[in-house]
Amino acid sequence: MIRWIFGMLFGMLLLISVMFGQLLYNASEDKGKQEPIEKPEYHLQIIVQNTDEYFWNFFKEGAKAAEEEYGVYVEFVPVSRKDAGVIKEAVEKGINAGVDGIAFQPADTKQTKDIVAEAKKREIALLTYENDSFNIPNTPMVGSSSYNIGTMAGNMAVNATNGKSNVVVIMNEAGEQGDVLYRNLLIQGIMEAFSKYSTINIKEIFTLDKDMFEAERVTSSIISDVKNVDLIICFDERSTPAVAQVLVDNNMVGDVKIIGYGFMPQTLDYIERGVIYGTVCPNAYEIGYYTVKQLAQSLKGEQISDYTPTEVYSIDAKNVNEYNNVIK
């Protein structure tokens, strides 16, 4: 009986030893997985809009490429809309969290200056991107030129109509003073492209609000209320396919040409089908890449530019297949 009891105790002790050894092995393995070989030197936050626009997909790809190249950690913080109060709150959270650098799109001047002052006190690097509308002193900027976007759209309109057309422009709602400046720069660019032609002019400018079906409503108003429209320029990425669909539904493809904005798959499909003449795109990948690069270099004590311009390009029937391959 005693030998049996000792045997049971020995067996239990052996089982416990094996289980304990396995536990130590697993803990050691997990520890090895959790600890990266190299820790990022800086933690950066980028405030982005939480939308389905393809701009943000390519912007993030560019930012992640620079993250790896410059040995930093990039955290994307989504906000619901481009609103001054919402953006200020998101940036302030980053400042209070003690991150090393923050990049964002300003939505006003006053609250953005408050953010800049607070970040400077805490020695946090700030940068704005896709912002040539708000004058934010002592804050570097990365992005495309609104004037160049307008000029490129205007040149495409000239090519689409041989310099003879009545043009309607669709733009986003102007809220803050900077939004008005952005719109003015776009229109100035278009007018520069039209300046050599007396037979092409802007008949009317329509404004989109934040309603989901606003583009359909505005386009329907254009084709029913504005006489002799030959071409529509739409400066909103999400609305460009909606404008095209209204023309399809009303059997007006070819009667009214479209110059769009952005890189959405539906837009490229409509270009391929001849519904949309072409689209103007900021180089989102480049904007994301240089946003992270400039912040990283600034934190490392390197001299950076006050303004880093990025490419604007156009897509039409001649090169649409090249870009279709990029998003597939």
Automatic annotation (TrEMBL):
Gene Ontology MF terms: carbohydrate binding
Chief localization: other
Pfam family, one: Peripla_BP_4
Domain Periplasmic binding protein residues, every copy: 46-303
GO terms under cellular component: outer membrane-bounded periplasmic space
Subcellular location(s) of the protein: Cell envelope
Family under the similarity heading: Belongs to the bacterial solute-binding protein 2 family.
Entry protein name: Substrate-binding domain-containing protein
Species, as recorded: Anaerocolumna sedimenticola
